[in-house]
Amino acid sequence: MENFSLKSRAIAFAMCAGAVVFILALIATSGGRADQESAGRALVPAIVCAVMCWAYAERTVSVTAAAIDAAIARLARAGNGDLESEIPGEVSEHVPALAAAMDGLFRQFHSQIENVQQLAMFDPVTGLANRTNFRRSAEHILAGLEPGARAAIFFIDLDRFKGVNDTLGHATGDQLLAMVANRLRAVAERFAPRNTALTPLIGRLAGDEFTMFFPALANAGDADRIGRGILFALSEPFGLGDQEITVGASIGIAMRPDHGTTLAELMRSADAAMYHAKGSGRGRAEHFTESLASEIADRAKLEADLRDAIERSQFALVFQPQIAMGEGRIVAAEALLRWRHPSGELRLPGSFLRRAEETGLIVEIGEWVVGSVADTIARWGAIGIDARLAVNISARELDNATFFRRLRDAMRAARAPAGLLEIELTETLAMHCSDDVIDAIKALRADGATVAVDDFGTGYSNLPRLRDLPIDRVKLDRSLTEQVAHQASARAIAQAVISLVHGLGYEVVAEGIEDDAQANVLRVLGCDVIQGYVVAPPMDEAAFLAWVQGDDSARWRMSA
Q1: Distance, CA of 140 to CA of 397 (rounded, Å)
Q2: pLDDT tens sequence across 428-454
Q3: Read out DSSP for 58-91?
């Protein structure tokens, strides 16, 4: 019977009822003997009963069918997103079980949709609008503002949050983020304008980055007051369990319409101002300015020019000799990077290396240097030049043992004698390089390369660590040697450092030596090698080879 329709069931019910009445009437009128006449008499009440049953059932079916039709229509509206409208009354009256099931289903769907929307539009840690929600809301408000209306975007980056995550764990970090969000809500409530329906928006973009949008400001001074309020709120200690944590923040501020009218323009400007605040000492609120805009444009242009320089091989190496004080002979030359800019200027590394490291272009520049150094050493070895070629390693390259492996492979591919290669690491980097990097350096040193620590005296040295590193030479920073010819205290410090380095078993190289007086004092103090303009300026390869074979280099051999 499960596959029968309601109408079929009504017909069956009417026929059954008529049959029962027919049988009862036949028994009552036949006197115990059934014949055609008694059957005819019994048939009349049976037909009447069946018709009446059919009429009643048909009316019931029609009402139920109408209620079901109404339920189907309501379900169709629900399928199009309408979960709020009431269940039709005829469904509740005539099919109450169906009405109850529909109501429960709609409530469950509505709850699930709210949960999904909450997850999609709000940050689960802080309860603030996430990036998508913040952008949509802010763009909607900006689109409705008058052309000259003043508004402000605040980019907020916590200053010491990473240390909390690293030392106390991510669960504690999440608690801190939630507390930061509460303080930002308090700031927004405090500075929210009272005479407008435009309320501040707060969002968490990612990690420890937050943003606030104030869509209605009376003047630019309001933005300064809000910035100070945020700084004060986030500089106060946060109580987490049994300890207090202080983080602070750096804030970038962009104003509408001064720094843009679209959300993308304002966020870009505020982001740039925030990074400028971080670079200026942290714990500050900085406005986006025209000078900052010019600086950003200059950085963008420098990056584009560097990409062109890599594609067009505009880099070059120049070489500055290093002379052994005892014998006056050339023992090495430091390879220095130069950029042959299309303007005709030969640019020094200080003008572009920092930007190259920020953008990651230093990796591609490093690859060019690797190939050039290997080829240069191969050429020098072929013509009998026995001076080592010293190469500075940048912080980005020192973080990756792959660089040293590429250098080793390039040396072997060029058939360059490893004994002519010297690697220079700054003192600070040498103290913190990983075991993987140390192993890669040891492999190069096993091939015959030498290793030097550069800029010694400018950082913090762990002497046991220095003793255990695979190094051969230590280069004194010029700050230790520039006054040795004129100050007794400078000579005493230089002598102490030279004795210390010798005690560790390494050679001492003094760089940046500008005159004979410095060179003579360092010779007396026991310095092994000097480098600087007193010997020779940096020069291209052709000039360097001519210098090695000419009278200028002979001056040092004779003076020694």
Answers
A1: 45
A2: 767 777 778 888 888 888 889 898 888
A3: HHHHHHHHHHHHHHHHHHHHHHTT--SSPPPHHH
